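Hi R.,

Here's the chain you asked about this morning:
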Amino acid sequence: MASRPFLEHLAAPAPDNARPWLAARVGQLPPGALDVLLRLALAGARHPHPAGVRSLLPYVTAPVRAASGQGGFARRLAARWARTLSRAARDGDWLVVTEELLKDAVDAECAGHLALPGVLDRARSSAP
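And the predicted structure, written out as tokens:
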């Protein structure tokens, strides 16, 4: 299985060629592949691809797998891309990405808030 540094090494000389190849296989590659794609999107300031980033949303907003712990990093990369994309390049796909990232952040906050009473109950029941 390819590692993130290897994928970044392959993508560096030809990001416009690597981007579609990686995007077509993001679900089959290691978790780091998503980060590589998002970094390519950030580096592609000359050639922004809002539709490409939109196609990655299901992977960006997927529940974090405990073993990888990388979900938050992908979310931050996607948010940085949305923030730094030039106003002229912001289209309907950019808007969908931005809305989904906001919804994901609000949902995560709400889930954490709703889980707090359960955590407090468990802490009280295990206290001596």
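Residues 4-126 form one domain.

Let me know if you need anything else.
M.
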